[in-house]
Request: fold
Amino acid sequence: MAKVLIADDQPTMRQLVRLTLESGQFEIFEAPDGDAAIAIARREIPDLAFLDWTMPGTTGVDVCRALREDPATAGMRIVMLTARSQDGDRAHATEMGADDYITKPFSPIALLEKVRDVLGPEALL
Amino acid sequence: MSPRSSLTVRMVLLGGGLAVVVGLAIGALLLTIGDMRAASRMARHSAQVTAAANETEKLLLDLETGARGFLDTRREDFLAPWSAARQRIPAATARLRSLAADNPPQQALAEQIGAGMRGYLDRYSIPLITAVRAGRTPPSATEGKRRMDAVRARFARFGAVEQGLSERRRAESDSAAARAVTVGVVVLVLGIALLLAFAVWLGRRIAAPIRRVALAADRLAAGDLTARVGARPGRDELARLGASFDAMAGALQETRDELDSQHTELGLQTAELEDQQQQLSSANDELRAQRDELERTSAALAEESERQRLFSAFADALAADATLEGRARLALTGIADAAGAQVGALYAADPDEPAAEPGLLGARGLETAALAPRIGPGHGLAGRALAEDRVLEAAHGPSGLTVPAFGGEAAVRCELHVPLRYGERPVGVVMLGSLDDGGFAGADREALEHLADQAAVGLSNAFATARAQHLANINRAVLDTVRDGITMTDCEGTIVLANAPAARLTEDILGLPIEDAKDLEPLDVAARMADPEGFLAATDLIAADPDEPTFDELEVAESGRVFERYTAPVRDASGERLGRTAVVREITAERQAERLKNELMATVSHELRTPLASIVGFTELLLLRDPDPDVRRQHLQTVHGEARRLSDLIDDFLDLQRISERGRLPLERRPVDLRPIVADQARVFTAHSAAHTLDVRLPDDPLVAEADPERLKQVLANLLSNAIKYSPEGGCIGVEGWRRNGVVGVAVEDPGFGIPPAEQPRVFERFFRAPGATERAIGGTGLGLALVREIVEAHDGRIDFDSVEGKGSRFWFELPAADPATAGASG
Reply:
């Protein structure tokens, strides 16, 4: 069963992502801030992480860079899930090591398709 | 004249001979004295040699007596003289030998003495001492005596020879001294004799002839031209003097004879001259008549020249002052002086404005207030002079216009009006008045008209200058009034125009006055810029003076101020290049507004997208999965809450937008009690955060103010939301209400980050976010407090805060209190 980490300071957002992924077979971990996200990632080595950018303390891109710098977590798939949509934001996130970038608001269906792209179709079974 | 015959040469030769004789005698004397000194030195030397021989002999005796004493007593202390003599003998014999070195036989004898003494010592004296000390038999005393006698015999011979030498030398010395005395006496006598002979010769050969010449000269001076010195053989100077004197006396006698004959001839010539003088006198009368004629012509010429001088002086005077008033005053003075007028006034119009009536430009001896400001064709005599374009004159007698004079008034008896003609048209008139009975009879009308025409030209120029100056002033004022700094540089790069804002902006950009700016190198200026390379590139481009306009922006690094610079080539009407203008405008505020707007757009976009994401996501899930009613209800509640949040955000934003557009927020004010509103909001926010507790303290009496309750709710919601957001660690939020001194107030206190002092003045600015808010991911638009202040101030209230960084903040507002009795249904 694939492990998925959801990091967002908004509980409704975490709930939305969790509900969206309910249809698949995932072990889901939630983090309300960046530091918690890094701690869980190091402990669980998830297959995929959805990171909000704007979080208290360590921001999503900082988490992304930290995970890429740590050999244990460097191989994770990381998708930024953020309301930031200014010019250059996506490029900056990619530079920090993000595999993909989804702007809020987003469609749960599209999110699922993104998960299938990243983890392969069998992850959704 | 042979040099040999010269008296001077002979005197020099005689003097020289005398000096040689005396010198030779003195030389002989010196030689003799030298001989004497040498003989004396030799005698002293002989004495030294004898003394040395005596001393050496004494050493020999010391040896002998010392040895004998020791032999008799056998005591070592008796040997002291012997030991001393033994030590000194080698030095003494060597000295004796060297002193006798000038005399080889004596030197040989000295060597023998030395050898004898060494023999005595080595062969006899030392063995004797050694033997006595060792207790052996001493050598024979006879041997010692023999050796001793031999040495002493040599000493005796050496002494005798030296004695003889010494006596001979002393005798030589004595005779040399006697010789020196003799030579000295001879030299003295010879010198005196020669000097006496020389003096006698001088007296005979020079003094006597000179005395003869002097006597003859005295006679000549007394008038006796026959005086002569008499011929004297010889060719020396004295003979020549005598001959010259005689020649001169002869010449003088001849001249006097000649003069006598000339005097007679002169008498005849005088008589002839007197005749000629008579003839000249008659010619002179004729010439005088011609001169009178010439003087008359010359007077006429002088008059014309005086006129020309007057015109030229008038032109010079006018040129001295370029202003219209100054030139009018000078023109009036010049014309009035030329006419002999005591009073006058000048009127003129600008020739470029034909419709204008001539106005008063200057007055002399008259009150300007009493004069018409303008005159037209119908205005009396002056008007006629103007209309008819000719000089007019009128006499009034004593009853005319009066002007102030000493202690009373004087009548203007005559007036004269001269038109000012410019081209073919009169443009003004000079009015002149005379207080004299004679009026202007003596005035030169022609000259006055000429002066008036000159004045008209000068005034027209002054009008044109004044017009140009006025236009230039307007242009300058307009240039200085615009917001942009405008400069123009000519083709050499010199600044030819800079308006006032240019000077100000240059100082803002460069930090020094525009006058000093030309000394700056582009590199110095670039160093002040945020983008030095860009600045240098733009400056190079402008320096190349391209045909196209250039456009760039300068950001001053230190102040952060931004300026826009536009430059373009300037051409005159014919297309010739005059230089380049640069227009500089500060756009700091625009840039800042743009940045703020971009930041706002980013913030608003982010803040709107966050609740929208929940709304879109949950509704899509609801549509896709059709969950059971409990789950559906839960989802719908979430969607509803997020939609409300979105709506509030939009309201805040629109409220502020409305305020910035209309200047004031529309309110629905009525008397309301603040307590229930505060309590409601506190309850709402208690539910928002589990980490916070709210401590609400409200008085028992109502807190009534004339207010819009919905807006007050907004204010409290913002303050409470901030208090929770900026104290993420949780804690107690204090809420307090009061009424005192005619105001009601509410305070919200949090234990959060606080606000750094540097940021405190900006707290109520729009879009201000507390430092670190974004890093800490504290949501918000930066609009809340700006809106709160607008609302409180729209209620005539005031809002403020106290904050300590790291400790927390206390925000409070006060509104004017209203009568509690009027508080209606709001509670």
